[in-house]
Amino acid sequence: MKISAMITAFNEEKSIKNCLESIKDVVDEIVVVHCGECKDNTLNIARNYTDKVFIAKDYGVACPNRPFGFSKCTCEWVLQLDADERISDDLRKNLRILAEKENVDAYELKWVNTNPEGDMFILGKKIELYKPIFFRKNKLINEGIVHEPTRTTGKLARAEYELHHDHVYTNKNTMRSVYSKKEKLWPKIDAQYRIEIGKASKSRWFYLAKAPLWFVLYVLYYSIYQKYIFAGKRGIVMSFYKGLYNFRLNYNLYKFK
Prior knowledge:
By secondary structure, this protein is of the alpha/beta class. It has two domains: 3-165, Spore Coat Polysaccharide Biosynthesis Protein SpsA, Chain A, CATH 3.90.550; 174-256, no CATH class. 39% of the residues lie in helices and 24% in strands. It contains seven helices and twelve strands. It has helices at 16-23, 42-47, 66-71, 89-99, 174-196, 204-225, 232-256, and strands spanning 3-9, 29-35, 53-56, 77-82, 85-87, 106-113, 121-122, 125-126, 129-136, 140-141, 151-152, 156-165. It has an eight-stranded mixed sheet with strand order 3-2-1-4-9-6-12-5. It has a two-stranded antiparallel ribbon with strand order 7-8. Strand 2 (29-35), helix 2 and strand 3 form a beta-alpha-beta unit.
């Protein structure tokens, strides 16, 4: 089975080499999609590993460019990565074995922050995160919607091999400040993109009414059903941000329709 790797990047010269080094000997094709104008050395680094380097529209977030990246992949399987992610040694050794299983069409892998500040604990137990990143191309679904993971029309399986996330936080407040900034910007981008691709067909007043309801429901879902309330202050803050994102998304759908 041949494998394409598809990487989205935005001025990632500090991270992308580690990402490319982790996959260069285990995939048959590497596709790199840069979101908008490159202002650092990202493209030059990428071209040392592949000639399939593309510059796409800068939406302000990578998600809308993923369908374009997938369209440039020619292999049967696709490994989806961000530039600040890299595959573990165990995953590198077993990637082709996963692709050879005929009854599986996609895999979610364990997503591990190499900086422990990104971790969250519930009653002292670390929350294990899994991310779908490896897909049989003819069965993957991705419309580029913000926060919507790539899906499959076939069977999804979980593998315990690790995908490492190397994002670096420079001080104890940076993770929260970065998350807060994204949660303000991304709902606007998300709303505009949904409207652009025809995924917001309801009346604008529907989204205005939905905004406060979805805020409450998402806060309750994460704080109670996902038990974030037992993760202390961080869990409460994260639950609030999940609700706030959905409030802002629906309010922006109302605003821009």
